[in-house]
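Incident log, structure service

09:12 report received: a user says their structure output differs between two submissions of the same chain.
09:20 pulled the input from the user's history:
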Amino acid sequence: MDYANSFGHIVPELVLTGAALALLLVSAFAGDKASRLVSILAAVALGGAGAFAASTLAEGSSGATAVAFGGLLSADAFAGFAKLLMYIAAIGCLMIAPGFFDHRKAMKPEYPVLVLFATVGMSIMVSATDLITLYIGLELNSLAAYVLASFLRNDSRSAEAGLKYFVLGALASGILLYGMSLTYGFTGTTSFDGIRIAQETGLSTGALFGLIFVLAGLAFKISAVPFHMWTPDVYEGAPTPVTTFFATAPKVAAIVLTARVALDAFGSQPDAWRQVVIFAALASIVVGALGAIGQNNLKRLLAYSSINNVGFILVGLAAASAEGASAMLFYLAIYVVMSLGSFAAVLMLRNGDGDNLETFEDIAGLSSTRPGIAWCLAALMFSLAGIPPLMGFFAKLAVFWAVVNAGLIPLAVIGMAASVIGAFYYLKFVKVMFFDEPVGRATKAGSAAQWAILVVCTVLISPLGWFLTGALETMTNTAAAGLFAGV
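09:34 re-ran on a clean worker, output below:
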């Protein structure tokens, strides 16, 4: 084994691990007064790791040249794109956090350190090409996420969110581990390449059960129906910057990992898992849309929106092709921008005392009192609804086009019909903000960082973002080719 070459492939993980350990020592010795400095240095570390991930993507790394540590990891372009997206999302979450935590006197250096450790786990997840590596990365991310969910120790909702996430996450990890053990038992290997080769002649009943259990465990991590039950409660109870983090970076990692498992480890038997993915996709679209209609809490509604969008992303995965994988990544990139902007807007909704507002009653007539936030939020909601010419429309078009080319026309038709349901609750934002009587509760100004994130995200999903689609398509096609080169 060439260790020098292997370590060269995991430079982003080494940078983040070293930074997290160093900043942990700074936090221990300097205390809470170093919170801002630790956050800035954590963002710098993420930017440095992102530069290495971008170089991997630009080189189009794939196949045997990207393999590290004897096949345990693969630093291919597929992982490089996911890492770049995760690091950008994590930086955004670090930028918007101080404005929230400072008001509660809860800004601590442990927050950026935990984000770094969670991101290390996510980096391992998207590069994993072995079931053991997969599990290690997933658990490293989950352990940090459980603490982040309950970060506000004096808030009962945050403590409840952390406990629920921990209990249900442990259950999902057990399901995943059981599926991994079945897969190993019936294929004789934990390597994705070995599993795919072992199943080329057919899938045994035991291996099929292993596949289903593995997909069930991963479905929990991506909030896909019917394993979505934790999402609304955790999103509502966790601190809003943490909810923003959960809705973006870990979502990218879990979806990319699911795609790698399906297309790589079980790629030789797509018909065995496609029907499971199709069910999860359509159920997530419908349940996410219907569940959001009756919500009054903005964070719970965005949680159901996340479930709904996961369904559309899984539509791209169901194509089981390079085009489908590229469309899935294209949608994922736009989804991260829309989610980051939406939660940044929610963070900026504060009353005169600085307390966050989270219900529709609080944003009634917002266009009269805070027109900047209202117009940006309206654009983001229209994009999430998939209304042209905003980028959310092109994201949905990409995944539906991919499944049509794969011959799954009924799936595309049902998905497009179900997407109409989701437009209802997105338009509710516009109705309440622009046509209801103003209540004037959102009076506190947002921080400069929150404004920057909101404006940038709004511009990116606007028609101006169309000029970047060529570069984004090139990156997603390169990433998808990097995955399929080893399949």
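09:41 both user submissions now match this output. Likely a transient worker issue. Closing.
09:42 reviewer note: Residues 156-187 form the longest helix (32 residues). The two ends are 22 Å apart (CA to CA).
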